[in-house]
Design goal:
single chain; Four Helix Bundle (Hemerythrin (Met), subunit A); 0% strand
């Protein structure tokens, strides 16, 4: 216990914080009518698909930038950096694809990938640290 909080956990929290909107908004596109009927002001229920997909792209870029910032702050190695770049590039590509083809089916593909993204990003952290300790 040092009485202080290191920067790495804060940046990792920021990754998850920035990941949450594209993840949930992509799912909410599929269930937009349910949100409308329930009166829940989820972005896809109160804004156009064009606006929703634009915000998904914005948050995706922020998420990827923060995930790359995590590398030097947490002293990650090449394994994590490679994983973050490849997965981040894939997420950006899928978000831009959703913006070009704003359909519920495309949104669900992004939603599915977002789960894989976060899982593999954390696996990259673990693998990077395991290799570094070996």
């Amino acid at each position: 216990m040092t009485g202080r909080m290191a920067l790495a956990p804060i940046v990792l929290f920021a990754v998850i914080f920035a990941w949450t909107p594209p993840h949930f908004w992509a799912l909410a596109v599929r269930y937009r009518q349910d949100y409308e009927r329930a009166g829940v002001p989820m972005l896809p229920a109160v804004a156009s698909m064009k606006t929703t997909s634009r915000w998904i792209v914005v948050y995706t870029f922020v998420m990827v930038a923060v995930s790359l910032l995590f590398a030097p702050i947490a002293h990650m190695g090449d394994i994590y950096l490679t994983v973050a770049v490849v997965l981040g590039g894939g997420f950006i590509w899928m978000a831009l694809r959703l913006q070009r083809h704003p359909t519920p089916a495309m949104a669900m593909k992004l939603f599915s990938f977002s789960i894989t993204y976060l899982t593999l990003l954390f696996a990259g952290i673990a693998l990077d640290q395991l290799v570094a300790k070996a």
